[in-house]
Amino acid sequence: GVIREYWFDVVNKTLAPDGVERITLSINGSIPGPTITADWGDTIVIHVTNSMQNNGTSIHWHGIRQVNSTAQDGVASITQCPVAPGDSITYTWKATQYGTTWYHSHFSLQAWNGVFGGIVIRGPASAPYDEDKGIVMLSDWFHQTTDQLYAQASSGGPPIANNGLINGLNVYGSGGSRFETQFASGDSYRLRLVNTAIDTMFKFSIDNHTLTVISADLVPIVPFDTTALNVGIGQRYDVIVKADQEPGNYWLRAIPQLTCSSNEMTLNITGIVTYDDLPVQDPVTAPWAYVDDCADPALGTLVPFVSLDAEAATTEQVMDVGLAIVNGFFKWTLNSNTFLSDWGEPTLAKVLTPSSVFTDEENIITLNQTNTWTYLVIESALGLEHPFHLHGHDFFILGQKPMVTFGDDSELNLSNPMRRDVAMIPASGYLAIAFQNDNPGVWLAHCHIGWHTSQGFALQLVEREADIPVASNMETIEDTCTAWNTYQDAVD
Ligand code: C2O
């Protein structure tokens, strides 16, 4: 593999993705930020500078396993301190997987002010196509900042999005412009879908066209066909679309699923597919029939192309999702605890400093046995789906059922289960995931609804503490923490 180097400047900037100006935070002044493109096996080096005032940052490479590089995971309060204003950090990691993913800020609610972008790692595909159209990012969008909206989100309920974006574009009133793409009759195209929303499940479709789904997150699957595909927050799907319709214009749609999203039916999040260089016009095509829902495709539909079985658990933890109101503010609990960030001393620093003590708010599960299997079962009695994400692993989905109470392991499937890094916890149901303790590090697991992460819906895994290399990891921590704590002292 070769080395691919990028320079990211995180800046405040007034932008108008849908024609409405607002303050945004972005990478290099654009939303989305630059796409990282590499080949399987390459080494990626990203120099990140925080050019904002009064704001920390950290960039997380969503779904990248970070084998032996936990400190490069970019999670403020877990694997590093926030990068202080004016300070820089260099992240280095290896593309050990291939497919489609994204990066986003992992500091507070910053990602959803615009600090995100795509990652394409080229590798074998499980079905042929003529052209790679690259990343198609599906976002919800607000005309205020997430910081302005947080108080409401935490006391009144999640705010309604003003709009949504496709690759950073959409119309609003008479302003803005739509995402457009060209098809040549008879050719087939690969689209790399990413849901970057803070609180929206999108159903993706292209009028009159069938989607052949070839991968889910960073895992190639046995191809299957569908007309409409639920893309949960943080999830990715690569689809192949054949230009097999009458030449013309067709709507491409990201339809918010109201069952689990705080959005309105009227949000019209569309792009235009145009055939054979015809004039681009608003299409007159009709959407495929669909049912509003927030479920992942049924587990039998998602079958990994490379077959692997899970093994029996050595550690198994069943936990419940809870929602409490503390002093008028929503707090989510997992494992009975609400997760709280400690910006000034990240977990990894504590783990590497033997005398440290952890508090309940750090919500830690310690896994010390090498290469044994861990099962996490998350039960949710609430009638709302949650996109559950784990860092550092592609987990195996052993069960995902509309049953609030998990019985025992006989309910689980261990034979080539779907593997990915975000799966939906069903409404009034449970999600059972498994992984092998094969990646020493500190890994966050959380609901990828941005408000929920900030409201404490998270836990941490400290995996094989004794095998985490000390010197290389401490370097990242010391770099960021010295600058961050100096900045904090000056502010206080
Ligand atoms: Cu997409 Cu914890 O992240």
TrEMBL record:
SUPFAM superfamilies: Cupredoxins. Pathway: Secondary metabolite biosynthesis. GO terms for molecular function: copper ion binding; oxidoreductase activity. Pfam families: Cu-oxidase (PF00394), Cu-oxidase_2 (PF07731), Cu-oxidase_3 (PF07732). Keywords: Copper, Glycoprotein, Metal-binding, Oxidoreductase, Repeat, Signal. The keyword Oxidoreductase applies. Belongs to the multicopper oxidase family. This is Laccase. It comes from Xylaria hypoxylon.
